[in-house]
Amino acid sequence: MSLEEEITICQFGQGLYAAIHLLELFEQVDELTQYRQLDELCLFLWRIEPDEARVEQALLQETKRVPPPAVVRRMYMSNSKLSRTFQLLEGDTKNRYASLLAVFKTCYQARYAAEKANPANWWYRDLSNPAVVEEILAGHQRLIDELYHHPSYSSEFVCLARLWNDEIAERLAESQQLAPKHTAPYSFVSYDEISELFGNGVSMIGDLSSSRNAQARSILTHSLGKALSKQYKLEYADVIRVISEVTRLHLRTRYNVESPWV
User: Fold this and answer.
1) Which residues contact 19 (CB under 8 A, 6 or more apart)?
2) Given CB 3.0 to 4.6 Å as the disulfide criterion, which of 57, 94, 124, 247 pairs with 115?
3) Ordered DSSP codes for 70-114
4) Pick from 35, 49, 110, 33: which is nearest to 83 by CA?
5) Which InterPro entries match (predicted)?
6) What is the DSSP letter of 122?
7) How confident is the model at residue 58 (pLDDT cuts 50, 70, 90)?
8) C-alpha distance from residue 38 to each of 94, 166, 211, 245 (Å)
9) Selection from 235, 21, 12 nearest residue 104 by Cα
10) Which phi and psi (to 5°) does residue 76 adopt?
11) For position 32, what pLDDT does the model report?
12) Measured distance CA(81)–CA(83) in Å, rounded
C-alpha cells in the first residue's frame, strides 16, 4: 500500500470519503491487485489494534448484512494485545472489500476519537487539513531522498537494485520464451516447442539462480529493515514501503527500469 493510498483509507475512516469512492478506485485495478488490497486492508486493521468488543460489533453487523458462512474470523497476536480481522470467503471481491471497509471504519473511528487530541501517529491527525496531508507526504519524500543519498546505506540499496534488475531481466526473458509462437487461434503447443523450453532450463517454479537472487534480496531487505526501523522508529510496514521506494529510485536512475514487482 502506497502512502497516498494509506492516507486515503484513513481519510475514509475520518468520514472524509464515502465508501463508494474507495470502491470505485478498487474496481479500476486488476484482479491480482484487488486481492493484494484486500490483504493490505486486513493488515492495516490489525495495525490499529482495535478494541475486541468493537471488532465483534462490526463483525456482527457484517454477518447480518452478508449471510453466514460468508464471514470467518482470524486471530492475531500483536504486542500481547488481541486483535481480530476477518475475511469474506464468499461473494465477489467488491463485496468483500466493502465489508472490510465497513469494519475498518467502525474500529478506526473509535481509535481516532481517543487519539486525535494528541496523536502519536499521523493516522490520527486531522487529515481534512490539506497542510497536514502535504506535511506527511513531504516528510516521507524527505526520508526517501535522505536514504537514497545516505552513505551508510548506499551499498545495500545499490546491491538490492542490482539484484532486482537481474530478477526483472530474467522474468522478462522467461516470459518471452514462454510466449506462444503460434498466431492462429486454438493452436496447440508442439512437442518441439516444449522440448526447447525445458531444454533451455525454463521452469514454472524458477531455477536455482532465481532462488539465490530471492534469498539475497530477502537477507538484504531484512538487514536494512532492522537498521532503518531502529534509526527512524518506523513500523515494519512503513520500513518495507521505504525500502521499496528507495530501491525503485535506484532502479530508475541506474538501469532506467520501472517495475511493479519491486
Assistant:
1) 12, 98, 101, 102, 105
2) 124
3) SEEEEEEEETTEEEEEEEE-SS-HHHHHHHHHHHHHHHHHHHHHH
4) 49
5) DUF5958 (IPR046002)
6) G
7) confident
8) 10, 30, 27, 21
9) 12
10) -135, 150
11) 86
12) 6
69-80 pLDDT per residue, tens: 444 444 444 443
Q: How far apart are CA 42 and CA 106, in angstroms?
A: 14
Cα gap 15→101, rounded to integer Å? 12
Cell numbers linked to 56:
465483534
What are 211's three cell numbers?
A: 532462488
User: From CA 142, how far away is CA 148, in angstroms rounded?
Assistant: 10
Which position has the grid cell 551499498? 155
For residue 103, how far is the Cα from the chain centroid?
A: 19
Q: What cell does 212 get?
A: 539465490
Beta carbons of 124 and 115 less than 8 angstroms apart: yes
Cell readout for 67 is 449471510
Domain-wise residue ranges, the chain: 3-128, 145-255
Q: In the structure grid, which three cell numbers stand for residue 237, read together?
A: 510496514
Distance from C-alpha of 238 to C-alpha of 176, rounded to nearest angstrom:
34
Q: In 3D, which of 96, 215, 229 has the Cα closest to residue 160?
A: 215
pLDDT (average), residues 4-25: 95
